[in-house]
Design goal:
Elements: H1 4-44, H2 106-133, E1 139-141, E2 146-148, H3 156-160, H4 162-167, H5 171-181, E3 193-195, H6 196-214, H7 217-231, E4 244-246, H8 247-252, E5 261-262, H9 263-267, H10 270-280, H11 284-299, E6 312-313, E7 330-331, H12 338-350, H13 357-372, E8 374-375, E9 392-393, E10 395-398, E11 404-407, E12 409-411, H14 417-427, H15 431-450, E13 459-462, H16 489-495, E14 506-511, H17 519-531, H18 535-551, H19 591-603, E15 615-617, E16 623-625
Antiparallel strand pairs: 1-2, 3-4, 5-6, 7-10, 8-9, 10-11, 12-13, 13-14, 15-16
């Protein structure tokens, strides 16, 4: 047995060890206390809330900055929050043509399925290239086969393509894309700022649409995160949105609206914010965009072209009742203005017809556009039978006094107007507008076929027919509102600085490129779904094959620099020298898969796939579910029907 001295030695060692352990425990406790205190302090700092990345449900990963906890510098008065309209969604007029009354032949059905499959393969090729060379980046550079970040680096093509993948039945690709989307960290960016407008229509719209189609909760979770970030764009002295969204300034509450903001950027947030409010039940999103709507309503009749707003407006006025000034002189349905007008009728639909404000905004603006911006081109004597019945949309300079000058500049971006007129015409019982919509849609399709590549340019000028002395009543369908005119070679030569350089009646091409844009096929798709005219299917197919031939690369598709050059032909440089300038622009923006290929796919699909009576498209072609009689805002059963008043 051990001796007494050994026992004392063992006891001393034991007590010494216990003292060390106690000291270590105290140190650990103190360290944990300090960590907890620091974490508490961080949580108490509303502008900078650090949140650990911990999976919440499934693959969902929460962003490291929680914008919902950020304290607003200019908080909204909660007593004045504008809530979603209450009541039962109205039974709106039928939008789509009743295709059940037509019996399609087997050959017709077979042809459309083959066309649809060709579009699907183009989308799959584009997606595979993005997946292989630019996964998680904003877009693919289709010739260099690498990625590029143009929209903060969150993966614009990834999120923008979600609903397209689902609609086309590319299920494996969709599932993988959702898993990647679930890990997006909105606080990790490749730039110091983003566009509030572009982020809303591409990212937020993409997330909400995919959720409406599939119901993946992770997509709504990510949409709420993003929506809370974008909501900070309204944390300004007058609560007008700051489109230039600097992340650091947004966290500090120092964003400011612009004195020269595009009307599209200010007016194209409503659909996405409204749908987010409907799905979450949080009125703050709808209230924010409603402030913009009310400001537009107040200024609609007080511009140089009453009924429309200038392309650029001042949204910086620090006057709560009049935060917008709209005194510019340039008016258009094209770049920087387009989707502000597009969203009026669509908001009326998304709100179930419960807010008449949007009907008024739409009808007034379309009446002005119809009277001053639309024109019939002077067509050459190239047609064996009756020339095509087409219209185009130009720009207007108005000084608010005695000058309203039509500038017959045609923009590819403005080709959406055909769908807008047709949709509003069906919705608000204006058959003349449906006709105008079809004429505008066919006008852009005609412009496609006029050029050697089979594609219309980004920006061009056309010789118009003389304007009619007055516009007929909207109810008068017999009188030709835009009279046709005969070709006048003298007028053509006088107006054209280089006769023969461009197809007649084009007198100039300011931008000959094609950027893989969707607007022309968008309007052809809507015109077909509304009128049921089968020749529009053939027009769409000619457009698709022309685009495919001119833009396809070995592994993807690319924008091209000059539509006035047929594929395979040598392209001259700016000085007329041949073969020294590339036809391609090494660009495949996210809207190629999100919009262009989606519309081509849908026009050749069964008409009940994403019916216009069930979904409303945002300006990035993301279908959002329409509340219906008998259903709530989320599309759930439980409400009674009510006819539209």
């Amino acid at each position: 047995m051990p001796g007494i001295s050994d026992s004392f030695t063992t006891a001393a060692a034991f007590h010494s060890a216990m003292a060390i352990l106690t000291a270590r425990r105290f140190q650990r406790l103190a360290l944990l206390t300090v960590v907890a205190l620091v974490f508490y302090i961080l949580l108490d700092q509303a502008d900078y809330v650090a949140i650990p990345i911990v999976p919440k449900t499934g693959q969902y990963v929460q962003s490291t900055y929680d914008w919902a906890r950020r304290r607003m510098k200019y908080p909204f008065d909660e007593s004045k929050l504008i809530k979603l309209p209450e009541g039962i969604p109205r039974e709106l007029p039928r939008i789509q043509y009743d295709f059940s009354q037509d019996e399609a032949s087997e050959s017709h059905i077979k042809t459309q399925k083959e066309r649809q499959e060709a579009v699907k393969q183009a989308a799959k090729k584009s997606w595979n290239a993005y997946r292989k060379y630019a996964w998680g980046r904003d877009e693919l550079l289709p010739e260099k086969l690498t990625g590029k970040d143009t929209f903060a680096g969150w993966g614009a093509t990834l999120v923008d393509s979600l609903d397209t993948l689902w609609i086309m039945g590319l299920n494996d690709e969709y599932k993988e894309a959702v898993q990647k989307t679930a890990t997006i960290n909105w606080d990790k960016t490749t730039s110091s700022h983003c566009s509030l407008f572009e982020t809303t229509i591409r990212y937020l719209g993409g997330l909400l649409s995919a959720y409406d189609l599939n119901g993946d909760q992770v997509l709504l979770d990510k949409a709420v995160e993003l929506g809370d970030m974008l909501y900070a764009g309204f944390d300004t002295p007058n609560h007008m949105p700051a489109n230039s969204f600097n992340f650091r300034e947004a966290k500090a509450g120092s964003l400011r609206p612009s004195m020269g903001e595009s009307s599209a950027a200010a007016g194209t947030l409503s659909l996405e914010f409204t749908r987010l409010a409907q799905l979450t039940g949080d009125p703050k999103y709808f209230s924010a965009i409603s402030g913009v709507t009310r400001a537009l309503e107040k200024t609609q009749d007080d511009t140089n072209l009453p009924g429309m707003w200038p392309v650029f407006i001042d949204v910086s006025r620090n006057e709560p009742e009049n935060p917008i000034s709209a005194k510019g002189s340039s008016f258009s349905l094209g770049a920087s203005a387009d989707s502000a007008y597009e969203y009026f009728s669509k908001m009326y639909v998304l709100l179930g017809g419960l807010d008449p404000t949007y009907k008024k905004l739409h009808m007034k603006s379309m009446a002005t556009a119809r009277n001053h911006l639309l024109f019939r081109p002077m067509l050459p004597d190239l047609y064996p039978a009756t020339p095509p019945d087409v219209l185009l949309s130009g720009n207007v300079y108005a000084n608010g006094q005695d000058i309203i000058d039509l500038q017959p500049q045609v923009q590819h971006l403005g080709c959406f107007a055909g769908g807008m007129f047709a949709l509003g015409g069906k919705l608000f019982h204006e058959p003349a507008h449906v006709k105008i919509g079809e004429q505008l849609a066919r006008g852009c399709a005609w412009a496609y076929e006029a050029f050697p590549s089979g594609i219309m340019p980004e920006v061009s000028e056309i010789i118009p027919c003389p304007a009619p002395s007055s516009a007929p009543s909207s109810k008068d369908e017999e009188q030709e509102e835009f009279p046709r005119c005969k070709w006048d070679d003298a007028t053509y030569k006088e107006a054209n600085t280089a006769p023969g350089r461009y197809p007649k009646p084009f007198r100039a091409v300011q931008d000959p490129s094609y950027l893989l844009r969707p607007e022309a096929i968008e309007s052809i798709f809507i015109a077909y779904r509304i009128t049921g005219k089968k020749d529009l299917l053939d027009i769409a197919w000619r457009m698709f094959t022309a685009v495919q031939k001119a833009t396809e690369t070995n592994e993807a598709y690319t924008a091209i620099s000059d539509v006035n050059v047929a594929p395979g032909e040598e392209q001259a440089d700016a000085h007329g020298r041949g073969g020294t300038r590339s036809r391609t622009k090494n660009s495949m923006e996210s809207f190629w898969i999100a919009e262009t290929l989606k519309y081509y796919y849908l026009i050749f699909s069964e008409p009940d796939l994403i019916s216009l009576d069930d979904y409303v498209f945002n300006t990035e072609a993301h279908p959002l579910k329409i509340p219906k009689p008998g259903k709530g805002a989320e599309g759930k059963e439980g409400l009674d029907t009510e006819k539209e008043a």
